[in-house]
Design brief:
alpha+beta, 173 residues, 5 helices
C-alpha cells in the first residue's frame, strides 16, 4: 500500500532509515568493487550522501514535494521521493525497494504514483540520476517514458564525484 509521508524530517528519516542504510551499503559496495572508491573513501561518501538525504527531506515533505512509501505487512518495503527543483521541474530521488520485496511491482507502483502526483502538481519535467550498474532501475524508468539526457549541472553526482558512473534521465510530462 502506497502512502505519502508528511510531517517532520526526523519522523520521515526514521521510517526510511533501514532502506537508506541498505542502499548505501549495497551501492557503496558496488562502487568499491568497480574501483571507483576505496573503503576509506566509501565511509566519507556515506556521510556525504546521508547529509544529502537529510537535506532533501524538507523539499520532499513540502507542499510540492513527495515522499512516498510502500508498506507490506506493516513494514516499509519501498520508497521514492520528489524534490522540487523549480516551478516546472522535479527530481526523482531515492527509489529504493527492500530486496525481500523485489518482484512484486512495488517500484513500478511507486514511480507511476510519483509521476501522476507530479502531473497533478503542475510539473512539466521530471529528472533523475541513477548509477550505471542499476540496469533494472534504468529499464523501469525507460519503460515509463524517461529518456537518457546529458548531465544536469546541479545534480548530486557532481557534488560527490560520481558523474562518470551515473546515467541521467528525464521525462517530459
Amino acid at each position: 500500500m502506497i502512502e505519502r509521508v508528511e510531517g517532520d524530517v526526523d519522523g520521515a528519516e526514521a521510517q526510511t532509515a533501514h532502506l537508506i542504510d541498505w542502499y548505501l551499503d549495497w551501492a557503496g559496495g558496488e562502487q568499491v568493487a568497480r574501483g571507483r572508491f576505496t573503503a576509506e573513501q566509501l565511509t566519507e561518501a556515506h556521510t556525504t550522501v546521508r547529509a544529502h538525504v537529510r537535506a532533501d527531506l524538507p523539499g520532499m515533505l513540502g507542499p510540492r514535494g513527495r515522499l512516498l512509501i510502500d508498506r507490506q505487512n506493516g513494514k516499509v518495503s519501498g520508497m521514492v521521493g520528489l524534490k522540487p527543483v523549480d516551478v516546472a521541474t522535479g527530481e526523482v530521488k531515492r527509489m529504493i525497494v527492500d530486496p525481500a520485496y523485489r518482484g512484486l511491482g512495488i517500484a513500478r507502483a511507486l514511480i507511476e504514483r510519483l509521476i501522476a502526483d507530479a502531473r497533478a502538481d503542475g510539473y512539466n519535467l521530471l529528472r533523475l540520476e541513477t548509477a550505471d550498474f542499476m540496469t533494472s532501475a534504468q529499464a523501469l524508468y525507460r519503460s515509463v517514458g524517461f529518456r537518457d539526457v546529458a548531465m544536469f549541472d546541479d545534480g548530486e553526482a557532481a557534488k560527490i564525484g560520481l558523474v562518470e558512473s551515473m546515467r541521467f534521465l528525464e521525462l517530459t510530462l
